[in-house]
Amino acid sequence: MAASRKEHSPSPPPQPPVAQTPGPRAAQFQKLFGDALNHTLRTCSYSKFSSCFPTPAKYAPQTLTSIWQQITTKVEASAKKEFEDIMIERDVVACLNELERLVAEAKSRRKNGVEVREPPHTLPPEQLFLAHLAPYLTQTETELDGELKRLQSENEELVEGIQGQQEETERLVGGLEAFIMDLERANEIMGNEVDGNGVKREIADIEQEFRAAGREAKL
User: What percent of the chain is helix, strand and coil (3-state, nearest 5)?
Assistant: First the structure.
C-alpha cells in the first residue's frame, strides 16, 4: 500500500545535490583570480619598489629587499585569504556548479528539440518594461473602450432628441405660418366689409405677434 502511494506521488523528484568540487567555471574563475594576483605582484617588482626609496636602496639594499619581500608576501597572503573567505561566504563554487548544470541542461533540451525560453535577465530593458506594463495597459484599454461605447450611446440619444426637437419646431412654425396666412385672408375679407382702421390695426398687431413667435421658434 505504501509502495503504491510512493509510485503515484505527484511530488517532483528532488534536485540532485550540487557538488562542492570546483567545476570548469569555478576552476576557471579561481585561475583568473590567481593570474590577476600574480600580474599585480609582478608589477610591483623590486626595481620599481627600490626606485621609490633611492637612499635605502643605495645604503641598505638588503634591508629594503627584506621589507619588499615582506610587503609582497603579506599582500599576496591577504588577497588570497579574502578571496577564499568570499568564495565560502557567497558559496561561489556551488553557484557556479549549479550554473554549469543549468547550461548543460539547456543545451541538452535545445538539442532534443525542446523549446527553451529566453531567460528574463537577458532581455533588453525596453522589452522587460513593456512586459510589466502590458497588464495595466490591457486593463486601461478595456476601461476606455467601455467608456467610449457609453459616450457613443449617449451621443446617439442626444442626436435623436435634437432631431425630434427640430421636427417639432418645424411643425410649429408651419402651423404658425398657416395661421398667419389665414389671418391675412381674413384681413382682406374684413377690409372689404368693415369700415374703419381699428379692426385692421388689431389684426395687424396679431399678425406681427405671430410672425415674431414664428421667428423665435425657428431660432
Answer: 80, 0, 20
Report the predicted TM-score, pTM, of the whole model to 2 decimal places.
0.44
**Chain centroid, CA 150 distance in Å:** 28
pLDDT in tens, 5-49: 444 444 444 445 445 688 888 899 999 999 999 999 999 899 988
Residues 184, 210 contacting (CB under 8 angstroms) = no
Q: Which residue has the cell 509510485?
A: 7
Phi-psi region of 118 (alpha: psi -120 to 50; beta: other; left: phi over 0): beta
* Per-residue pLDDT at 168: 82
28 is written with which cell numbers? 576557471
Residue from 208, 210, 211, 203 nearest 187 by CA: 203
